[in-house]
Amino acid sequence: MYTLYRLNTTLMIDRKLLDKFYKGRCTPDEVQQVLSWFKNQNQGEQNIEEYWHVFEQQYDTKLAVRKPIPSAPNHQKPSLIWQNQWVRVAAVLLLAFSLTLLWATLNQQLTSTAPVAIEIIEKITPTGQKMTFQLPDGSLVTLNAESRLAYPERFDGSNREVVLTGEAFFDVTSNPTCPFTVSARGVNTQALGTSFNIRAYQNEPTVEVVLATGKVKVDFTEDQARVAYLIPGEKIIANNQELSLQKSEANLAYALDWKDNILHFQEATSEEVIATLERWYGVKIFSPKLARINDWQFSGTFQNENLENVLTSIGYAKNFQFKIQSKSVTITY
After folding, report:
1. How many helical (H) and strand (E) elements, i.e. helices and strands, does the chain have?
2. Averaged pLDDT for residues 138-144
3. Helix (H, G, I), strand (E, B) or coil at 180
4. Which residues pair with 238 in a beta bridge?
5. Cα–Cα dist 182/241, whole Å
6. How far apart are alpha carbons 18 and 10 in whole angstroms?
7. What is the pLDDT of residues 39-74, one digit of tens each?
8. What does the alpha-carbon distance between residue 327 and residue 259 come to, in Å, rounded to a whole number?
9. Which of 173, 211, 244, 249 has the most CB atoms in a 10 Å sphere around its CB?
10. Per-residue DSSP letter, 148
């Protein structure tokens, strides 16, 4: 059971709380409670003296017999003995408050230095749209249609790592002490400060890395011993299933011109043409017969052309007709 003291006021205080205060174990709220209690002791020295007697009975166990404190005459100031006791009380209270304040400060510092979760940001482009934006380190990214890039709100540590699905062109800010890594479907591309393009769509069997400037290293998440390095004008076709890296010379215009809204086809199959047009213009193309033609290939370039003009050109070369209804296209022979 707790013991409460009433010292000539309407306020009461818990003896257990006084014990905690004396030992410096109070929380900041409890310190405020005790200090508020002392602040409201307006009856002068009598209240403090009563508290001191209670305080002394509990903690001054060395004194077997206590001598009464002589009362000062009504016309005199408090005795020197009482002044000394007041100093003792003030010293104890100051010590307790200092310890509690120290505890609260340390606790706040520990809380403020606790790890803070880093938010992951995702940029997503639907079919028919592209997006250019800046990463926290100042690197520029152009994200092609039907693509997704995930990256932290700030780069923390010795590596700048982002995750790509789809296609993107990276113009990386140089930082030799903090490599820039793109993870795309199990293929990792690392650079210090360079520009390159990565194509890694889910429905395509390989990942293509084309280097425009600088130098990059390409390896696999599952087998980092398989490594290839690129110089400008080279590309790598990475097969994550076979863990193979095929390096060759790149056609930079074909690989990079999509950023400038230039559409290239180079000996593209019917499936590649359909998939590219669907992604580029945000439509759905239906052509059961066209999908069954295995030896069908097309090469051509279109700059800032609408879908109707592109289909008209391809249809003229491949002898098919088409019909556009909103976001749906039907191709017939």
Report:
1. 8, 20
2. 97
3. strand
4. 207, 245
5. 19
6. 17
7. 565 444 444 455 555 555 554 544 444 445 444 445
8. 23
9. 211
10. E
The dotted CATH code for 120-255 is 2.60.120.1440
How big is the chain, counted in residues?
333
Amino acid present at 9: T
Question: Locate tokens 């980092």: which residue?
Answer: 224
d(CA 134, CA 153): 11
Above pLDDT 90, what percent of the chain? Answer: 50
β-strand pairing of 147-152 with 284-286: unpaired
Task: Tell me the pLDDT tens digit for each residue of 313-331.
Answer: 999 998 889 999 989 999 9
DSSP code string of 263-312: EEEEEEEHHHHHHHHHHHHT-EEE-HHHHT-TT-EEEEEEES--HHHHHH
d(CA 288, CA 282): 19
Q: What is the DSSP secondary structure assignment for residue 172, as one 8-state letter? A: P
Q: Which long-range contacts (CB under 8 A, 24 or more apart) does 2-9 make?
A: 5/51, 5/54, 7/41, 7/43, 7/47, 7/50, 7/51, 8/41, 8/43, 8/46, 8/47, 8/50, 9/40, 9/41, 9/42, 9/43, 9/47
Tens digit of pLDDT for each residue in 259-299?
A: 999 999 989 988 889 999 999 999 999 987 766 666 788 99
Look at domain 261-332 and name its CATH class. alpha beta
Residues forming CATH 2.60.120.1440 domain(s) in the chain: 120-255
Contact of 152 with 118, CB cutoff 8 Å = yes
Q: For residue 52, give the nearest of 40, 72, 66 by alpha carbon.
A: 66
Rounded Cα gap, residues 255 and 264, in angstroms: 8
Q: Where in the chain is the domain with CATH 3.55.50.30?
A: 261-332
Q: In 3D, which of 142, 150, 147 has the Cα closest to residue 171?
A: 142
Taking the C-alpha atoms of residue 121 and residue 135, their distance in angstroms, rounded to an integer, is 10
Q: Name the band, by pLDDT with cuts 50, 70 and 90, for residue 222.
A: confident
Instruction: Count CB-CB contacts under 10 A for residue 230.
Output: 23
